[in-house]
Amino acid sequence: MCIMASCPSPNWSVFDMDQSQALQAAVQEAHARSRPLTIRGGGTKAFYGRQTPECDLLELSGHQGIVDYAPNELFITLRAGTPLQVLEAQLAEAGQMLPFEPPYFGPAATIGGTLACGFSGPRRPYAGSARDAVLGMRILNGQGEILRFGGQVMKNVAGYDVSRLMVGALGTLGVLLEVTLKVLPRPTHSLTLRQSAAPAAAIQRMNHWAGQPLPLSATAYDGEHLYVRLSGTGSAVQAAQARLGGERLADAEAASFWDDWREQRHVFFQGDAPLWRLAVAPATPPLPLPGQTLIEWGGGQRWLRGRRDATAVQRLAAQHGGHGTLFRGGERGGEVFHPLAPPLLAVQQRLKAAFDPHTLLNPGRMFAAL
């Protein structure tokens, strides 16, 4: 049960292939036969989530195309299998961008896979997350019914915010068919400053800056240097540069640095050691853990490497108002996400029962109980 298509050109006008009916028929057949489905877009994020038994493949990479784009209204509607590079190229032609600066993790990345994983990049603390950018969605539930939620502008969105519920659900609640996203103008000026700092000082600076009227668009700390990206009007960026100080990176070096950081090509991410992501309160001091820690999102996201006791890591994250995830590598047959409290797990199970009552869509990808 596989629906496939190739990607012949980066010109979005030829990426206009609506496979909604074929996808709906495939899900309805799976429902009738009680056959679970593995949902796949570009396959660039297959490393994320729990490793589950093989199921019939539902391929969305051929379901492509920009349905509606209104630059003046700051929204775009497109099919979930549309490649990220096609989407961002089209936005760039109009001088616009996705606010959440998503990582690709491979050239075949699609917007549907990005939203299903809930991935956001360095700009996330200052312009919002992937979930924040979603205005509406059209999905297939586990019974093969097409459902539509949300709208094209925020003032038209009423009722339960089901569209954003799908972000980060790893396809366990529905097959994403079509999404409407908020877009933003590209800043006219951008520069990156580098400062030497100890871990505690770097965290303190990032938190202090976050409370100031500064045009911040990214911050990152690699254990020795703190990097801060400023984006906005020329006058605002220049004033902030004079206020913060530090060494200015050449534009090409800065662009390469943030690309490598976002795509996890930084030397820290190299190798096969398990990669842990901890979300904590931004002002959390350096965590008492061995090894190097990368810090970004104004202090709110920490990256660790190596084989570690999952319970200890997650307990430490919880003590600081957050959660811990085995992001990449390691033992993926068990639970990789932070355990849910029983009341939250019960809510998740009720949602799963409502959208996918026979547990056919990516079963077990998030939690074994889902």
TrEMBL record:
Database matches in Gene3D superfamilies: 3.30.465.10
Indicate yes or no for the key word Flavoprotein: yes
InterPro entries according to UniProt: FAD-bd_PCMH, FAD-bd_PCMH-like_sf, FAD-bd_PCMH_sub2, FAD-linked_Oxase-like_C, Oxid_FAD_bind_N
The organism's superkingdom is given as: Bacteria
Question: GO molecular function, one example?
Answer: catalytic activity
Protein name stated in the entry: Glycolate oxidase subunit GlcE
- Pfam family, any one: FAD_binding_4
What are the FAD-binding PCMH-type domain coordinates in residue numbering?
A: 5-186
Q: Which UniProt keyword terms apply here? A: FAD, Flavoprotein
